[in-house]
Prior knowledge:
32% of the residues lie in helices and 19% in strands. By secondary structure, the protein is α/β, with parallel strands linked by helices. Helix 1 packs across helix 2, helix 2 packs across helix 3 (76-87) and helix 4 (111-132) packs antiparallel against helix 5. The radius of gyration is 34 Å and the shape is elongated. Keywords: Cell membrane, Membrane, Transmembrane, Transmembrane helix.
Amino acid sequence: MTTPSPPQTPPPPLPPYPETPAGGTPPPFSAPRPPLRRSRTDKVLGGVGGGLAEYTGIDALLWRVGFIALVFAGGTGFLVYLLLWLLMPARPADAAGPVSAPQPAEPRSPVPGVTVAALLVVLGVTSLIAWATPWSPGPVVFLSVALLVVGLGLGVGAFVAGRSSRGPLIALGVVLAFATIVASAGQGWLDRSRGGVGDRTYTPSTAEAVRAEYESGVGDLELDLTRIDLADLSGPITTSINAGIGDVEVLVPRSADVQVDVQNGVGDADVLGDGSQGGFFPGTGGQRWTDDGTPEIVLTIESGIGDVTVSRG
């Protein structure tokens, strides 16, 4: 007797495939974009470039080349990279969790990539012009140019469809804006700090030995003019002092008529016993030129942080 075979179970139905659009190309699939984090796998120094690449889809090499270009463009690359390192948290170690099912998504917008490319080109051209000409732009100029390019990219991205057309540029624009504000606020201090670091004392013995300008970056500065013989002057001794951080002390002869102009940011000013910012101060000696209304010494003092004292020796 023949045993009947068991009934066969029909195979499960295949999942429905997304409908093909009119153009004949199936819709693209992509995983959700990860949050902005420093990368743990693609990193050279802190994972900032790798994290920006994962977030924007722009190759990490382009981001690193951009930071290097900013380093040579007035040193701003250090500041921007440091800010991103501090503001971007590291990706968690267990971030590689279950991957969600792919979902249809719009094509990625080309605006961020084109903007970064334009940013590198503009910064490169600016650096080349600065190298080939006497023009010496500071960090504020390079940061402002970079901010302008990113702003133009944001304006174009507002009219171009596609994913990630504005988010990465907004993040980059915020960092550049903050760096520009910091660089602008510190530009005056940087200009003053070029005078060097350390205390300085100057004691010229003749009018010809007095410099037209004395500079000090960080440290106290003392200028002693009491050794100068005022009897044979052919004209007033004119000098200026530019100090960044530190006290400034100037000693003038007791018999000299002195014209003083003081501009200081943070600190007290004591000009020949007067708390004002300067003026005309006649000498106290018995020589014939004393108190004739014409100064023998003209002082201009600019100080950032520190006390300014002008006294008679």
